[in-house]
Specification:
single chain, alpha/beta, TIM Barrel, 4-stranded antiparallel beta sheet, 17 strands
């Protein structure tokens, strides 16, 4: 199909907005300019976006779609619809499903299901270890790569044994893949379920100390330096982790990392009651951690924003911290939250937000998209920056609505999402 998006605003140099039109054809951006209709060109579909912002499709390297095994929480179909609704054209799905895709056969079945059900591009992680059990045998990373595995992660579980992690990193380096780590030392957890601070003591809730994350990151950085592996740290949440990664980058360790909107916008001080809606892993940080995360975002230590979209059934979250499930949904509100609370407040330039949510994830993980360029994939998101709305679960495509952001007023609503030139949302 030949598609025209007209009356669009696009980001030019120096964060200025430039008016123009985009011509999509054969799954790619065919041309960017003005007045294509006046050139006697015919289009199968014309979208007048009335000065809305057109950006490269958003990319999320960390989502949970729960299928197979936990379809009551989310499915590939509902998760990918939620992604499209949030402006995401590519997402990377974690392997904490049942069965985990830890063999080529399981991976191929998973990819076939994704091809059948997804409305956006879904890249599937494989586990680092068989069935994601941290202290057992490595999965066959080379065979999983051949079967189509995106990269490797045991997300939800930290790899506890240094030898296991080192062997995984050596193998990943050989096959030019990335180890994507949930950093958590189980020996330091001691039953904790929220950040170990004043609020946890006031509420009588067992705490998680910052060293649970940072001690394992420190170990893994040393291993990655020795193995020559690309090591990516999921959802970092402490000031110590930010500093470790900052120093490792200076030492030319091949490390990247991500941060979630909930760690940037919420702290443990926001938790006023023993309510699992606030329960997330890693836990909501102390104020000093949040400040360090924002500083790391601004100075380039943190490479990208990821949602860690983690849907759960209502009963799993409408309980207390001890009994509730870890996780917050994020695909459908992340751009709006970041635009409202960071761009509108002058903390981040709009161009920088697009860099963190599209351009740089594409560059780091060698993905298509991430740019508006002729000949590149027609993965495009159209957003009305002036549209104000209230985050409301009844508007979600996700099965999960476990988020403390319900009721927040935000700006920046997704109008259209195109994946390879096909309309996925709008």
């Amino acid at each position: 199909m030949r598609i025209l998006i007209k009356n669009a605003q696009m980001i030019a140099k120096d964060n200025d907005l430039l008016a123009g039109e985009i011509w999509l054809e054969d799954n790619v951006i065919h041309a960017i300019g003005q007045d294509f209709e006046k050139q006697s060109l015919s289009f199968d579909k014309v979208y007048d976006v009335k000065n809305a912002l057109v950006i490269p499709g958003l990319i999320d390297v960390h989502v949970h779609f729960r299928e197979p095994g936990f379809e009551y929480k989310e499915t590939i179909r509902t998760g990918s619809l939620a992604a499209a609704h949030g402006g995401f054209t590519q997402v990377c799905a974690m392997p904490n499903v049942n069965p985990a895709p830890d063999t080529p056969e399981k991976m191929q079945r998973m990819l076939a299901k994704i091809k059948q059900e997804a409305v956006v591009k879904v890249h599937q992680y494989a586990p680092i270890t068989k069935n994601r059990e941290s202290d057992t045998d490595l999965a066959d990373l080379a065979d999983l790569k051949k079967a189509g595995a995106w990269n490797f992660s045991n997300d939800g579980l930290g790899v506890q044994t240094a030898d296991t992690m080192y062997r995984a990193m050596v193998e990943a380096a050989k096959i030019e893949k990335t180890i994507v780590a949930h950093a958590e030392d189980n020996s330091l957890l001691n039953g904790g379920v929220m950040h170990a601070g004043k609020r946890a003591r006031e509420l009588g809730i067992p705490g998680i100390f910052s060293i649970v994350e940072s001690s394992q990151v420190a170990r893994d950085l040393a291993l990655a330096q020795s193995a020559g592996c690309h090591y990516h740290v999921c959802h970092i949440s402490t000031k110590e982790t930010v500093q470790l990664i900052r120093e490792a980058k200076k030492a030319d360790t091949y490390v990247t990392c991500e941060v979630t909107p909930h760690h940037l916008l919420l702290t443990d001080e926001d938790i006023l009651a023993d309510n699992a809606i606030w329960k997330v892993n890693p836990p909501l940080p102390r104020k000093a951690d949040q400040e360090a995360l924002i500083e790391g975002l601004l100075d380039g230590t943190i490479d990208m924003i990821a949602t860690d979209h983690a849907p759960h059934a209502q009963a799993e979250k409408e309980t207390n911290f001890i009994n509730g499930a870890f996780g917050i949904v994020g695909l459908e509100q992340t751009f709006s939250l970041m635009y409202t609370h960071f761009v509108e407040k002058g903390i981040l330039a709009l161009e920088k937000l697009i860099h963190l949510m599209s351009t740089h994830p594409a560059k780091v993980f060698k993905m298509s998209g991430g740019c508006l360029q002729i000949g590149k994939s027609a993965d495009i998101t159209v957003i009305n920056l002036d549209q104000e709305y209230v985050i409301d679960a009844k508007n979600f495509e996700s099965k999960g609505y476990n988020t403390p952001f319900l009721g927040w007023k935000v700006k920046g609503d997704t109008l259209l999402t195109f994946v390879d030139g096909k309309l996925a949302w709008g």
